[in-house]
Amino acid sequence: MKTTVRTVTAALFAAALISQAAFAETKAGLLLPKSGNYAALGEEIDAGVVLALEEAGMADDIRLVREDSEAKPPVGLAKTRKLVLQDNVDVLIGIVSSAVLGAVRNFVDGAGVPLIVANAGNVDATGKDCSASIFRVSFSNAQLNRPMGTWMAGQGIGKVYTLAPDYAAGHQMIEAFISAFEAAGGEVIGSEFTPFGKTQDFGPWLSKVGASEADALYVFYAGGEANSFLSQYRAFGMGETVPLYGPGFITSPLQTAAQGEAAVGIRSALHYIPSLDTPENNSFIAAFTARFKRQPSEYAVQGYDAARVLIEAIRVGASGRAEIAAALPGVRYTGPRGPLQIDPATHNIIQNIYIYETVMSDEGITQKLLDTVENVRDAANGCDLR
Ligand code: PHB
Fold first, then answer.
1. What is the pLDDT of residues 286-325, one digit of tens each?
2. Cα 223 from chain centre
């Protein structure tokens, strides 16, 4: 009797070990802002992650440990340390703010924990400060703005004024725009930065733009600031005199329902727009809308693709920090945004950039594609991780 019990117990134990090996749980730290100016962006990326896990039937195999970065660098770093040292996560996903990405870069690099960036465009993280542990499936701050600089000059726009929040992303986006715009013959006649996350009244800056000779205004604003900036721009009645351009976060499909008519007519660039008519995007939109009862935006796609590259890595057998990091540089597929590839040299993403106009249609606000710049790849800036 004893022997039988022992044999059965041993057999059960062995079976438990085998099933653990086959379905070894991966712990993923999800670091996103859930409060502050970028809170809605964090929720949207989270939704994209959840959809990808559920669609792949991996919701029980990848356990999410969520932390709120508040989009503040010291908070982001403290939460990253907690996820890595205390929760012992295998991988980190998230980060919305370029400033938070800059703050966690050295710790992530030293700890050797793969970080799949699902928004923050900080160019240094995949350039001069690149890391074997940092991968990006969102966009870089230069990648969206260079094509807009070239395109706007090609439209015959001569003089431009720029505005953006005074932090890493604002500076990097505007710098990339200016260098491409000027190289193509444009002229930037004023460039100012507004205090980040605390500017309620953009009036003083809008007055300066209005009094200048600018043919157009180029801005980067996102989250809550995008909504307040856009409504004040409209209140100044500048739509006819100084048309507004920028990276498409200003009229992100996440926010156009709240913005209404104010968003219509703005021309901008993003790496994803919901109106792309491809089989991959149509099925993504159907799944996201069924699950969350709203249209997805670029932020949802970033969360979806961040989880998807992790799922692909796990499916080819990667388990634990080093194996996941080793599997990511080879990632390449066509998803909702079109073809995407992780650049093995920098771990940045290579993808199409879509120049579009926000328009009103019978079904409500949508995005009219004006131009596609294919397979945009950032300069390596000295980085070579191959
Ligand atoms: C950034 O800080 O890199 C950032 C934040 C919000 C965006 C885009 C970029 O929508």
1. 999 999 999 999 999 999 999 999 999 999 999 999 999 9
2. 12
Stretches where the chain sits below pLDDT 70 are 1-23
DSSP character at residue 255: T
Determine the atom of ligand 1 nearest the C-alpha atom of 97: 2
| Ligand 1 atom having least distance to the Cα of 222 | 10
Length of the chain: 386
Domains and CATH numbers, the chain: 2-139+277-352 (3.40.50.2300), 142-270 (3.40.50.2300)
Pocket test for ligand 1, best of 32, 37, 38, 196 (most atoms within 8 A of CB): 38
Query: Is the CB of 169 inside a 6 Å radius of any atom of ligand 1?
Result: yes
121 lines ligand 1 (CB under 6 A): yes
Pocket test for ligand 1, best of 69, 98, 229, 251 (most atoms within 8 A of CB): 98
Name the residue with the closest Cα to ligand 1, atom 7.
222
**Structure tokens given for 69:** 């970065």
Distance CA 271, CA 286 (A): 19
116 close to 311: Cβ distance less than 8 angstroms: no
Could you give the C-alpha distances from 337 to 97, 174, 341, in angstroms and in order?
21, 24, 11
Q: What is the pLDDT of residues 161-192, one digit of tens each?
A: 999 999 999 999 999 999 999 999 999 999 99
Q: Which long-range contacts (CB under 8 A, 24 or more apart) does 114-118 make?
A: 114/90, 114/321, 114/324, 114/325, 114/328, 115/91, 116/91, 116/92, 116/306, 116/309, 116/310, 116/328, 117/306, 118/32, 118/45, 118/48, 118/49, 118/93, 118/94, 118/302, 118/303, 118/305, 118/306
249 lines ligand 1 (CB under 6 A): yes
Looking at ligand 1, which residue's alpha carbon is closest to its atom 10? 222
